[in-house]
Design goal:
It is built from 33 helices and 28 strands. By secondary structure, it is α+β, with helices and mostly antiparallel strands. A nine-stranded mixed β-sheet has the order 11-10-9-12-13-15-14-16-17, with helices on both faces. A six-stranded mixed β-sheet has the order 1-2-3-6-7-8, sandwiched between helices. Strands 18-26-22-24 form a four-stranded antiparallel β-sheet. The longest helix is centred in the middle third of the chain and has 26 residues, at about 440-465.
């Protein structure tokens, strides 16, 4: 929708609703039309919710909420005064806004709105809950044609201010990149360590100066620009060196004649904080390009005061070499994703505490509690032991300061003076924040981002208190330590007796991708009580090191921790390897968790990885554990297991043989043939047409792709053959010769040895009887992994596993929802797709002990599944097992089989959920393991 179209739509909407407005009958059509016709929401009925229940001392209903944009609506009829109190059912007199606030107090913190809109059809009052005592914005329906943009927050998932901050921050990062590249070319030896470190420091200093002049920190606007403009290109380098020296020198220590010799330079304030202290920094000569870039693009044409320090820190760091970033496993974090960590870790609780204090009716008690709460905020200490550009620390600081500013709003009541001369109104400080980071440039960026955040929040506080506050010289400093967090003693950074929260986004490096040094890091950490590395330490992701060090530090403390991680540490074999030592040695428990979600970032090279968030502690938590299912939706549970399920804490460890009395699983046959023993449909047709005798040696072949997607493929299968036949089959003979040459050219001795048997698959495991085929990888979107029940005449490739000598009964158990629930709980994943493993999934699965009658029933229902599949010979299994296109006969057959299997386990069909099913399977697994160990 163009601007002109939206204006016309707003005009038409206003004209239609003029003088209309019956509260009970027209409220919903009014809002649905506004969202659909003016703001382009295609399905407004899915976007806005009406009449949500809230329980006061009676049941009430919120007129409207928009969860995606955090909006609450209180609608009144036409002509109602939005400023006038209205009598409620309990006798209270409340304005519409006060009524909305009462509803908010009954909602979970995660559902608190950012915006409250009260409306009487002709007027909208918009309250920003970041300033709950501020005056509302008022938008008249009659003016909507011109002012439609003022209600844009209704549909903007990120409000306009945040979107603007993001856009500015990304643009700022691009400018830094241009400066970086231009300076890089000027260094005499740009690849030297000293030059690269100098370049990084130079970029950080320039950014601080550009921000300081736009934010008014230096003095008048454009002060840095005007100073630089006084130099030609040749003199600019010396001018910058002189400026950096002055910024690092206290006024009393400066040349007393500087004001006379160079008043422009003398006007710059003392910065402190060490940002300008290194005089060994190498600054290369300027060029006209750099001068113009700095003066025009970076200074004149850009406003640095609007950047988000949280986002910009990440974007700024992206000026590093992308290869360096990838090899370090760093992924940059959006503000939304940061809050997925810090909100349930501590921020939601702090906001709830603030709301409860504000609800105290007696002013003296409320004021005392607010002051105590402010001191509490100022006492909290945070550590990010993989802090990167500091975005977790920066966003946490901003969140605490916003909460502190709300305290100041409550305390001030319009008064200018609340604090004595010796007491600062701002008590939350960046000195409460500690970090460890291996990259020196990122350390400097993190400190700078926090200073910028401090400056921005000080400006917000000035607006509340109506008094000027001095930012320079810098009075506080974040404690960001350069070093390898897995080798650094965290208590040397901050004492655990002082620490409250550990958080962050440690590097994502899978165990197969770890460098020699990274593997050494993990082996040095994951040790038992005797100091020996765990056997599984070499097969866990790098991020596990942070979990272990955090759990160890948290001993005998109330510290709480939350990390973002790749989802692999909560799946498959890694669960026991990562988590069992933490439970056994340190007694941790999981307080909350986000199940797998896709992780996006604000970096220029976005990292699309599948992540989880795990919050854990050792001290007992008074609140029930929580599992977040998506977005802010969460459920309280009895226990969060390391599989991030509401199940007992059980570790399903790798096992070589099945726990129950069932056939072993084996891998499919592997040709190792260079493609010469395999044929597609065209090659098969050509071969059979020219050499019909070959048909007895050609068998259908199924890998995972062929099996699931119905791709026709064939193979030359000659476990035995008549040598005379080969002489008459020239094309077959040629393929056998090429297979021999392929194997002889291998670097592996075993493969070369098998060149003596070129007509055979190198690894032959094809059973002589029916077998169950299990594709090792399958889409997460399928409710059932489509296992096959195959005859021995179909050759199974090594992309699958097989259960030889299988029965229809066994097929029925394995294809059931019970086994699928087990698989989803304990299997590994590729991204989030299923990775079925023999050692963890199949060998540990606790089978039922059915009666003969139950077994016969399962055989019957399993056969019905195979029969239902056979009704659709032209459809692939991928099509048949798409939940949208699954034929009704197949769906019913599966449902009947599910019921039969659940009855064999003794599960209540009506009440057993997947989560409770897995919980029961975990108990059964424990029983069977104990029984096996006691034999």
């Amino acid at each position: 929708m163009t601007t002109a179209q939206q204006q016309q739509a707003a005009k038409n909407f206003a004209a239609y609703w003029k003088d209309k407005g019956y509260e009970k009958g027209e409220s919903q059509p009014f809002w649905l039309s506004l969202l659909r016709d003016v703001y382009g929401v295609e399905h407004p009925e899915q976007f806005i919710q009406f009449e949500e229940q809230v329980h006061l001392d009676h049941t009430s209903f919120i007129d409207g909420t928009i969860p995606a944009t955090h909006v609450l609506i209180e609608q009144k009829g036409l002509g109602k005064d939005l400023n006038k109190p209205i009598k409620q059912s309990d006798g209270a007199l409340l304005t519409p806004f006060e009524q909305a606030k009462r509803y908010i107090l009954e909602l979970p913190v995660s559902q608190h709105p950012r915006w409250v809109v009260t409306c009487n059809f002709s007027t909208f009052y918009v309250y920003d809950m970041e300033r709950p005592r501020g005056e509302p914005e008022i938008i008249e329906l009659a003016n909507l044609e011109k002012e439609y943009y003022r209600l844009q927050f209704l549909v903007d998932a990120g409000n306009e201010h945040l979107k603007r901050e993001m856009e500015v921050s990304i643009a700022a990062g691009e400018i830094v990149g241009l400066l970086y590249d231009a300076f890089y070319k000027q260094y005499a030896n740009p690849e030297s360590e000293h030059s690269l470190k100098s370049l990084n420091k130079l970029c950080v200093r320039l950014v601080f100066c550009l921000y300081a002049e736009d934010a008014g920190i230096f003095g008048h606007h454009g002060m840095f620009h005007d100073y630089l403009k006084g130099f030609d290109t040749r003199g600019l380098r010396k001018g910058l060196v002189d400026l950096f020296r002055v910024l690092d020198t206290k006024p009393q220590d400066r040349d007393p004649y500087l004001k006379d010799d160079n008043p422009e330079l003398a006007a710059f304030p003392y910065v402190n904080g060490g940002l300008f202290s290194d005089e060994n920094i190498e600054i290369p000569p300027f060029t006209d390009e750099i001068r113009n870039l700095l003066l025009e693009k970076a200074s004149e044409n850009f406003n640095w005061s609007e950047i988000s320090p949280t986002i910009f820190g990440a974007v700024f760091e992206s000026t590093l070499n992308p290869e360096t970033r990838r090899s370090g496993g760093m992924h940059y974090t959006s503000i939304e994703n940061i809050h997925k960590v810090i909100d349930p870790l501590f921020l939601d609780k702090l906001k709830t505490e603030f709301d409860e204090i504000c609800a105290i009716p007696i002013e003296r008690s409320r004021t005392a509690k607010l002051r105590t709460f402010q001191r509490k905020l100022a006492s909290l200490t945070f550590l990010d032991p993989a802090c990167g550009s500091g975005n977790f620390l920066t966003e946490t600081y901003l969140s605490l300061r916003r909460l502190e500013n709300k305290i100041l709003v409550e305390l001030s009541h319009g008064q200018v003076t609340m604090y004595s001369a010796s007491e600062s109104p701002i008590q939350v400080s960046i000195s409460q924040f500690y970090g460890i980071e291996i990259n020196d440039f990122a350390v400097t960026v993190a400190k700078t981002a926090l200073w910028i955040a401090e400056s921005q929040m000080m400006k917000e506080t000035e607006k509340i208190l109506l008094v000027p506050l001095e930012f320079l010289p810098l009075k506080t400093n974040a404690y960001i330590v350069e070093g390898n967090a897995l080798r650094v003693d965290w208590e040397s950074v901050v004492s655990k007796s002082k620490l409250n929260y550990i958080m962050g986004n440690p590097p994502f490096v899978g165990y197969s991708l770890q460098s020699k040094e990274q593997k050494s890091d993990i082996l040095s950490i994951y040790v038992d009580e005797k100091g020996k590395p765990y056997k599984t330490a070499g097969k866990i992701d790098y991020v596990a090191g942070w979990y272990y060090k955090a759990a160890k530090l948290m001993q005998n403390t109330p510290i709480h921790t939350a990390f973002v991680s790749t989802n692999s540490i909560t799946q498959g074999e890694q669960v026991a390897g990562v988590w069992k030592p933490l439970y056994d040695q340190f007694g941790i428990h999981i307080d909350f968790a986000y199940r797998t979600f896709r992780w996006d970032s604000e970096a220029s090279l976005k990292a699309h990885v599948h992540c989880v968030i795990v919050g854990f502690s050792i001290a007992q938590n008074a609140n029930a554990p929580q599992i977040f299912l998506g977005g802010k939706q969460c459920v309280a549970v009895k226990n969060v297991s390391p599989y991030l399920l509401d199940t007992p804490t059980v570790f399903v460890e790798s096992r070589n043989k099945p726990l129950c009395n069932i056939p072993d699983v084996v891998k499919g046959s592997s040709p190792v043939d260079g493609g010469n023993l395999l044929l597609n449909q065209e090659e098969y047709d050509d071969l059979i047409e020219s050499e019909p005798l070959a048909k007895k040696y050609i068998y259908p072949f199924v890998g995972a792709k062929e099996f699931l997607h119905g791709v026709k493929r064939w193979c030359i299968w000659m476990p035995t053959y008549n040598p005379a036949d080969i002489k008459n089959l020239a094309k077959v003979k040629k393929r056998i010769e090429l297979t021999r040459e392929f194997r002889l050219s291998s670097t592996k001795a075993a493969t070369r040895k098998y060149a003596d048997y070129p007509s055979r698959f190198m690894e032959t495991r094809q059973p002589a009887s029916n077998y169950i085929l299990i594709p090792r990888h399958s889409s997460e979107t399928r409710k059932y992994i489509p296992f096959g029940f195959m005859p021995p005449s179909i050759i199974c490739g090594d992309a699958n596993s097989m259960v030889p000598n299988a029965t229809v009964y066994q097929f029925g158990i394995l294809i059931s929802n019970v086994h699928m629930a087990w698989t989803r709980a304990v299997c590994g994943r590729i991204k989030s797709d299923y990775r079925y493993s023999n050692d963890v999934v199949y060998n540990n699965f606790p089978w039922p002990t059915p009666t003969e009658q139950q077994k016969a029933k399962i055989e019957q229902t399993a056969q019905a599944i195979l029969d239902a599949r056979a009704l659709y010979p032209d459809s692939s299994l991928a099509d048949l097992y798409d939940d949208l296109t699954m034929p009704p006969e197949l769906r019913k057959a599966h449902q009947d089989n599910d019921r039969a299997v659940m009855q064999a386990y003794g599960f209540n069909i009506k009440t057993t959920t997947e989560s409770s099913c897995v919980a029961e399977l975990m108990k059964l697994y424990q029983q069977k393991v104990s029984a096996a160990q006691s034999k």
